[in-house]
Structure formats: C-alpha cells, structure tokens
C-alpha cells in the first residue's frame, strides 16, 4: 500500500533563517506531487506541483521553492523565511496522468518568529 | 475557470443532529467530485468521492450525491457524533488546464459537534 511521510512534524524558525521540508512517498511510481499551505483558519493554497523528477510548477510567486531530486521525494525550501511563511504545510500525491484522488501527508506546522 | 463554492462555517451542532454542508461547483465537463476531512492537527483524508452524475459517495455515515442539474455535491449525515468535529473540504480533482495542473478546493467548513 502507498504511504506518504512528511517531516518534521513541527518547526519553529527565526525570521531570515533557511527552511527545508521533506516529503516522501512509498508504494507508487511516478506520482504527481503537491505542496500546499494552510494558513490559520483559512483554506488550502497550492504552492507547487510536480509531474516528474526535476519538473516543478509554481502556482503563486513567493520566496519558497521546491525540488524533486528523486521520483518519490519532494522538498520545499526557502533561503530566508518571512513571518508570513508561518502555516501548516501539506504534501500530497496523486496517480500520474490525470490525477484524481489526492492523498495527503500528516503535515508540518511551521511557526516563524 | 473551475471553482468550488462551499458553505461558510463554522457549523455547531448537537450530537445526533442532522448535518448538511453545501457545495456547488463550476467545471468543464463532468469531473469527479470529492469530500476531504481534516481532523484537528492532521492532514486531509479522503472522505468520499463520486465519479459521475447521480453517483452517491458514502463513508462513515456521510453521503453526497453528484447532482449535475444543480452542479452540487452536498455532504450529509443523519446523526453526527462528537468525533465528526473537523474541517470538511469539497474539491475537484487535479486536471490539466492549459498545460497546468489545476486543483480546486473549497474554503473548508469547520464542524463542531457538542455533546
């Protein structure tokens, strides 16, 4: 069966520090991968998606970036965090091609102080 | 473009009350429709889905019927429990649109069930 992992679960970082969040998927090949952000009390915002290794598309301009160095690994990064980067970050995957059901990881709660 | 409009929350109900969370959509063709649930402090889980018109998705006592005439996919449960307290998201699936993967989630409806 497929599983999706995210770490760390919780992170407190100072403004201006770098960020690296990791997401890995097991039990499937060539998945579509997604990074979402959920600000407190708000809905989901799609940040990045990837249909393959090295293929990253961004939905919104920001100081975050994403990379997919391996088929089942998706990394969210920042060189300098802003206060507004605080939120709940969710990674998800769906089957390749026309994605249908998305399967979400447990999320990483990021607090930037 | 594709969009999902979801009932504003929060919704507060007593245990064993009936629940309806409204969801309407705008999309090209007849996509699958989804309800996801997010329990406090967790990621989203697929609750149910329907893949074509008039399909009824069901899980854990929740039901939703794909109504193409009204472009709706309302979530219902006859008797809610405290453990149903969560945020519920109506969603369209990821689709290729002009070369981009578009994913559309509703804004989420927070449900609180009190004993």
Write a structural description.
The complex is a heterodimer of chains A (113) and B (115). Chain A is mostly beta strands and 113 residues long. Chain A is 0% helix and 58% strand. Chain A contains no helices and eleven strands. In chain A, strands 2, 4, 5, 6, 9, 10 and 11 form a seven-stranded mixed sheet that branches. A four-stranded antiparallel sheet of chain A has the order 1-3-8-7, with no helix packed on it. The mean pLDDT of chain A is 90. Chain B contains no helices and twelve strands. In chain B, 0% of the residues lie in helices and 55% in strands. The mean pLDDT of chain B is 90. In chain B, 39% of the residues are buried. Chain B is an all-beta fold and 115 residues long. In chain B, strands 2, 5, 6, 10, 11 and 12 form a six-stranded mixed sheet that branches.
Nutshell version of this structure?
The complex is a heterodimer of chains A (113) and B (115). Chain A is mainly beta and 113 residues long. Chain A is built from no helices and 11 strands.
Distance between the termini of chain A: 38 Å
Structural class of the helix and strand makeup of chain A? mainly beta
Uncertain segments of chain A are: none
Average per-residue pLDDT of chain B, rounded, comes to 90
| Silhouette of chain B | globular
Q: Roughly what is the average pLDDT of chain A, rounded to an integer?
A: 90
- Characterize the largest beta sheet of chain A: strand count, sense, and whether it forms a barrel: 7 strands, mixed
Work out the strand percent of chain B. over 45%
- Uncertain segments of chain B of ≥5 residues (pLDDT<50)? none
Share of residues in strands of chain A: over 45%
- Please tally the helical runs of chain B, counting DSSP H or I stretches of 4 or more residues: 0
Give the structural class of chain B.
Answer: mainly beta
Percent of residues of chain A in helical segments?
under 10%
| Structure summary, number of beta strands of chain A | 11
Which sequence of SSEs, written as H and E, runs from N to C of chain B?
EEEEEEEEEEEE
Distance between the termini of chain B: 41 Å
Shape of chain A: globular
Radius of gyration of chain A: 13 Å
**Strand tally of chain B, please?**
12
Helix content of chain B: under 10%
Spatial extent as radius of gyration of chain B: 14 Å
């Amino acid at each position: 069966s497929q599983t999706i992992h995210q770490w760390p679960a919780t992170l407190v970082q100072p403004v201006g520090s770098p960020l690296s969040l990791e997401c890995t998927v097991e039990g499937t090949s060539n998945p579509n991968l997604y990074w979402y952000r959920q600000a407190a009390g708000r809905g989901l915002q799609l940040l990045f998606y990837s249909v393959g290794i090295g293929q990253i598309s961004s939905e919104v301009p920001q100081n975050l970036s994403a990379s997919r160095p391996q088929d089942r690994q998706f990394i969210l990064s920042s060189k300098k965090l802003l206060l507004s980067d605080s939120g709940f970050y969710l990674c998800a995957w769906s089957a390749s091609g026309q994605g249908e059901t998305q399967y979400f990881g447990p999320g990483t709660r990021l607090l930037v102080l | 473009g594709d969009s999902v409009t979801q009932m504003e929350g929060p919704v507060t109900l007593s245990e064993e009350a009936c629940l309806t969370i409204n969801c309407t959509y705008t999309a090209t063709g007849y996509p699958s429709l989804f309800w996801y649930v997010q329990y406090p402090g967790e990621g989203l889980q697929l609750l149910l889905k329907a893949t074509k018109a008039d399909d009824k998705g069901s899980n854990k006592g929740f039901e939703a019927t794909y109504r193409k005439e009204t472009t709706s996919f309302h979530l219902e449960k006859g008797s809610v429990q405290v453990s149903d307290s969560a945020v519920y998201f109506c969603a369209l699936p990821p689709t290729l649109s002009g070369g981009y993967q578009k994913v559309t989630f509703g804004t989420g409806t927070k449900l609180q069930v009190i004993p």
